[in-house]
């Protein structure tokens, strides 16, 4: 922490700041220039960060220097983490494909969906049972029945399953039927839900909120990790910007930035970023080329009739061709020297 | 709904679109120009909006024409709604002051805070017991004990109370002790929580998510309204933009836009928008001048020692002077002719 | 400047950083903690800011501490500046009204426009002759002929005039005919144009770019000031965000932030921010209440037939009522104590 | 164009709208539903777009249906355009490398830079002589002397050259010495400059403004094209968002969106998007994988001592390895089937 005093701050104000820092158990280092006085804090920054510095007389601002996430930090844990979803691994140099329909719409449909995923190279089956919908008048998913159908389909085709949980009561149900819990973008800062999945014994797929900074995503992961669950996969899925040509702006840079900052696996979701099927293949290629550990993509055998988000679902044949291409790109990336 | 066909769409594609619309029970109106064919849908748009139009062959895009919120719409309910919080009214031409500390820190502190609010013109007492914090390592509030203290302080000074609920289990507790339930910005799209407060018999203060559009805020209100609770107050509190001089960008335009679109009362929170005490008075003046029905502001007798968000809390004497000024501005606004 | 070294930076790397700083003529102050080493620079920050710190081995990042604008800074010039446009003053506690049509469309029209402005309380007449248009196929203004008509109208009604210059060649022409030069939002970072108006002997109205930070606006002003022209008025006019309910998002907070940072007068443009006439009055009230020194507003006697931006022009009768109200609000603001 | 009337619009208002459309020479098509009346315009939309619809009584809003750019549109020109820069082609399935230092700093330096580019696979040499700098106190480039040095270096190593022009007077000078004119992000909407390069007989590299929509970029290209210059290459270089982990947010989706909308070649600039050398290789891979026709990248043999933007310059050895990898990725992309 560095406390930057206002130009013209008095000696008494500087002294008061030093006293507050020392009272919190840190040491200080004062640097006086002609224009400015800076006060460095040596010790645990967390203890002084919350001291309302801009409300303290004479203080211009305070800057935190170390990162506020600890368990998620690559600095503390240089080796890449690998998350194991019932035998399917994510991270550590692999490229993992999570795929399936947006929503479980019925038994026949999800069985067909699972078959498509399995036959074309997918490794984990996705399908929503508890859907977060912007309008209260839209289809909200099949609920627990959907989880059972997803599980049946996954088992039939040997695919572990991932599904979104929206509220605390969904967690035990999803744990009973599925293999990985997804926290959706709208719930990235639902801290009670983060703590709940932090206590579950299932891997977690944590999607970035669409207005969340990378720092906030890592702090959301820290909620889960600090509750005891180390099996966390991060997912970039597009952020909200002024550009309306795509549903969200796919922040492809977040992938290498996250790989620098954290040891957790990083995947991405080109379907929600694009919001339009024709853009999914180029965005999928971009994300793999940027160094992601995998991707989660919506596939539907009849997008026109999908009950949710059909506009962004790709056809099985597109998925099939894409898997082949993405593996080839990943092969080049794996051998990168810079 | 208007379906805009791609240039060169075939007759078969146009026919297929018409069939899909008519199968949903609507009538169509086809307009063929030299360059483009448009298909208007006459009837309930909600039935055709979800038909995945961009996944339908030959379709360029589809545009919804009517607003997807119904109960919140001013068109359906031209008169301004008034929300009653234990006798304190919000809406209908009044200017209502909600004030207090960010967080209930202890008994003595909240009693002092309530006294400050009461003596200086505040009408509803705010105080957080369940705090949503970006970092898991920050102070998270006193929980139910905090609610009891808030209630005691409110009763002693004759002030109804408002407090944030973060998860379903908080709702009955807050209903027991407090008079108004707040949904925070991070939970604006926590749909389970919206439905839960929609079933509560308490007024709700719904804050805009910091990356939510005005349309999404109205749809979030619609979740509460459609669950049966008509006592909803909307609150603008700053949105996330590229500008970092303020914590968030106070979207003052949202106030008149919302007043045009909905009959619900609209207040604002200058404290969270600014993130800095010196900016709270000018933003408070701006929001009142823009036509808000009230504001919620953080006041603390010793911001430097606040356990949460002290940087943006104003001092009691500042609050006192501000209330007088804001009432004067509101007096002018009330008589506006344009 | 503070140089923050990477965790684990070597002694040689720290030494190299110190040498680079000292070679630029500054002194250093090294602070070593358990986790981190910080190196403070004492002296003229500008000399070390450009040293490509993140390209320097062992450096995590560098933070500038002082503000990079000097002449614009309130710190160096605490008293508010007053800009004089042919006798009409902006700044120093006044509220000044600049008004008129978006574009000079013809002689009769601008004469009528000037009359409307004069009779209803406007003090400076605006009117575009060189219009920046997003599409090459839109009306681009009358050019120099427009300047002459604007000047004639201003003289007839005793109103100084302001007009936009888009490129260097416009500057002498505008100086010949008009009293104040406007730099539009799209040209806020057109540095050659800034330097050119910096050498002109006319006051300048500098509009904030719609994606410019407040810091960049002040640096743009610094270009003009450092070229020798001290008559600069800043103008907030809405920034680009994800919200589409308004044409731009009026960043009302920029007004008090700028008033803290600079001595230059600050006005605003509610017309371009809103993009819609019905929102102009509430935004105008908000900006005046936030402490602005004036506003520039589009008024047209027949908006439906305007050749440019008619959607946001208010009618003369609306302008008339608004002037009265804004003066009343300004009367309250002037006496503010907080 | 579709005119959407307000609910409750009167017959007289509908009639007035129809008259205005017909007066502009278009036909109308009226569609009356229970809730709404829509009026479609058949004919040239450009003629009715500028009619200030929201200022017209009874009108809710107007929606343009066709794209306002004509020459740039892929619909009018389905085949990909190829731009020829002194024998080096951009577009049409190739991957073209533009590289070099941010700024020409001196003779020896640019000769060395050109050698690095040539030996490692670069095809066009970049180097700035007229630099747009946010602060007036930063190095602004060598001016015409820089152009001569750039030209000399290009000729010595057989590399065509590209350089930025910032104002009209730069255009003839750059045309005399260089082979391609660059319009920088800050000047994307400097319409006088766009028209001037539209009249030049040199290819133009048009960078996207950092707050420009894709639509605005295409309209800026249309300014150049409609002035007679068909040799235009578009360049995505990062947009401004709330995320501060990167200097700008690289909008990789813009590449496939532009490829759908226009026949012009599309390249990208990973250096300015990232603002940090370590992120340049992953972003370069992402952009090529997304389907770009080339990239422009900053390379410097000693970034620490660069006079401008050294933080984002990659070393020659990194550039060399990257060229090999990017060609391999491009090889896969070229054979894509979806």
Tally the beta strands of chain A: 14
Helical run tally of chain A: 11
Q: Kindly state the mean pLDDT of chain A as a whole number?
A: 94
Count of separate structural domains of chain A? 2
Percent helix among the residues of chain A?
25-40%
Coarse structural class of chain A: alpha/beta
Shape of chain A: elongated
Largest sheet of chain A: 8 strands, parallel, barrel
- The sequence of SSEs of chain A as H and E is EHEEHEEEEHEHEHEHEHEHEHHEH
Give the assembly state of these chains: homotetramer
Largest interface: A-B, 52 and 51 residues
Task: Enumerate the strands of the largest sheet of chain A in spatial order, edge to edge or round the barrel.
Answer: 7-8-9-10-11-12-13-14
CATH topology of the largest domain in chain A: TIM Barrel
**The CATH top-level class label of the largest domain in chain A:** Alpha Beta
Looking at CATH, the homologous superfamily of the largest domain in chain A is Aldolase class I
Provide the CATH architecture of the largest domain in chain A.
Alpha-Beta Barrel
| Rg of Cα set of chain A | 23 Å
> Uncertain runs of chain A with pLDDT below 50, 5 residues or more?
none
Descriptive account of the structure:
Chain A is an alpha/beta fold. The first copy, chain A, has two domains: 2-63, 2-Layer Sandwich (Alpha-Beta Plaits); 83-334, Aldolase class I (TIM Barrel), CATH 3.20.20. Chain A is 34% helix and 18% strand. Chain A contains eleven helices and 14 strands. The first copy, chain A, has helices at 11-23, 46-49, 107-119, 144-157, 170-177, 191-199, 214-226, 254-261, 270-274, 280-289, 316-334; strands at residues 2-5, 27-32, 37-42, 59-63, 83-85, 88-90, 96-100, 124-126, 161-165, 180-183, 204-207, 232-236, 266-268, 294-298. In chain A, the strands form three sheets. Chain A has an eight-stranded parallel β-barrel, surrounded by seven helices. In chain A, helix 3 runs parallel beside helix 4 (144-157), helix 6 (191-199) packs across helix 7 and helix 10 packs parallel to helix 11 (316-334). The radius of gyration of chain A is 23 Å and the shape is elongated. Chain A starts with a strand and ends with a helix. Chains A and B meet through helix 6 and helix 7 of A and helix 6 and helix 7 of B.
């Amino acid at each position: 922490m560095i406390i930057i005093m206002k130009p013209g701050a008095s000696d008494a104000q500087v002294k008061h700041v030093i006293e507050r820092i020392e009272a919190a158990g840190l040491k200080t280092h004062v640097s006086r220039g002609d224009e400015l006085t800076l006060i460095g804090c040596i010790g645990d920054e967390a203890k002084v960060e919350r001291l309302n510095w801009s409300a303290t007389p004479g203080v211009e601002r305070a800057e935190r220097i170390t990162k506020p996430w600890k368990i998620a930090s690559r600095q503390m844990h240089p080796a890449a983490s690998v998350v194991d979803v019932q035998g399917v691994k994510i991270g550590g140099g692999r490229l993992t494909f999570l795929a399936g329909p947006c929503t479980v719409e019925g038994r026949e449909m999800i069985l067909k969906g699972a078959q498509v995923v399995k036959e074309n190279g997918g490794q984990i089956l996705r399908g929503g049972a508890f859907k977060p919908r912007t309008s209260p008048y839209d289809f909200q998913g099949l609920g627990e029945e959907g989880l059972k159908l997803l599980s049946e389909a996954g088992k039939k085709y040997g695919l572990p399953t991932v599904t979104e949980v929206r509220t605390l009561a969904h967690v035990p149900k999803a744990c009973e039927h599925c293999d990985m819990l997804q926290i959706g973008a709208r719930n990235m800062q639902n801290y009670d839900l983060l703590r709940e999945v932090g206590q579950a014994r299932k891997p977690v797929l944590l999607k970035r909120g669409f207005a969340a900074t990378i720092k906030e995503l890592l702090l959301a992961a820290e909620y889960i990790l600090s509750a005891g669950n180390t099996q966390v996969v991060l997912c970039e899925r597009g952020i909200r910007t002024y550009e309306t040509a795509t549903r969200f702006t796919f922040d492809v840079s977040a992938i290498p930035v996250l790989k620098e900052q954290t040891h957790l696996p990083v995947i991405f979701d080109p379907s929600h970023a694009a919001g339009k099927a024709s853009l999914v293949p180029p965005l999928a290629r971009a994300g793999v080329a940027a160094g992601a550990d995998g991707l989660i993509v919506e596939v539907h055998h009849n997008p026109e009739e999908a009950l949710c988000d059909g506009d962004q679902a790709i056809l099985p044949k597109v998925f099939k061709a894409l898997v082949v291409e993405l593996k080839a790109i990943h092969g080049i990336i794996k051998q990168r020297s810079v």
